[in-house]
């Protein structure tokens, strides 16, 4: 009788519409079997009822069969089945009908008030009929038991026929509702996890895009600056190759040094990239569908790539300016403030801004004078690169421009929460300035 988990146990409020209310073939077979057993029992009991009521036996049998077959409606109309069992209690038929009907009513989603009322009616009807039958049987047998025997037997019979099926039905219904609640919670958690996975995938994609942008900026800074200087020196080498072999040899050595420096930086950068790819591949092999670790790996790699690559720092600005001077540019360098150290990313960003600005001078303002200013402050570092108008007498090196230099500098500075400004000057030159904050917490000094 324990059918927890079947949707048809919901009773009338949750039963599907239509004449066929079973959701599974097994449920229909079970109900048909119970209705058949109930019909046989009621048919046999209908014979005794026909004799006592002085009715034709056939009528009593038909009456019992019809009453027993109503049990097949227990899932669709459990209240009606219990009411029929209570109505036929005086005829002393329908034991299976009463027990199964009460169980189904208690296990269904019928309001508990209705279940309590119908259970009380069943107990009362059974108690009265049992007491009357007991007195009648005792009179026929000529036995006069004590007065307390009849009430005790009647109460035991009434409670014994009503309480077990009702309690079992309440347990089955509560268990079914608990299982459904857990299933709904599991479905909700699955949907929530799916949503979190989608958001994690979006974050991972954003982190990958940020990483690609960072790598593109690094490649642009390294290649554009070094190659630009190499082209300038190569042009100078071509111009003096026949006139001044010593100077040509010097320019060739400079071109070679710059090429080696560019290759070294590219190898270092590619090595970091390979290590990040290996970390990402290991994460994908272990958790192919979990994107949150990928996002964390990509973000951490983006934050630590410059440090791992051993990128440039502010102390190397003089060497950077020296390279431009060697290429024939008149560059003035001024440094303000006490010497202090900043986080690697801050120093590298400031260095790259100066590097890209000088590269742009080589590209777009050949022969122009440039001024580089570095200001070391307590909570920030500021850089300014300004050049005058181009000297048209100097031959243009013909360097291509992708138009991404200023955008890359602005993105670098904005990533660290700084400010970036660029634009032409009144004198016909160009100015690039950036202020990069130092996010490192100041040390706490004890009084």
Automatic annotation (TrEMBL):
InterPro entries, sorted: DUF7134 (IPR055558), HATPase_C_sf (IPR036890), Sensor_HK_TwoCompSys (IPR050482), Sig_transdc_His_kin_sub3_dim/P (IPR011712)
Ranges of residues in domain Signal transduction histidine kinase subgroup 3 dimerisation and phosphoacceptor: 211-276
Enzyme Commission code: 2.7.13.3
Pfam families membership: DUF7134, HisKA_3
Membrane among keywords: yes
Catalytic activity, reaction form: ATP + protein L-histidine = ADP + protein N-phospho-L-histidine
Protein name per Swiss-Prot or TrEMBL: histidine kinase
Coiled coil: 179-210
Highest taxon of source: Bacteria
A cellular component term, taken from the record's GO annotations: membrane
Listed transmembrane segments: 55-73, 79-103, 115-135, 147-173
Domain DUF7134 per the UniProt entry, residue ranges: 20-137
CDD domains, alphabetized: HATPase_UhpB-NarQ-NarX-like (cd16917)
Organism encoding this protein: Streptomyces palmae
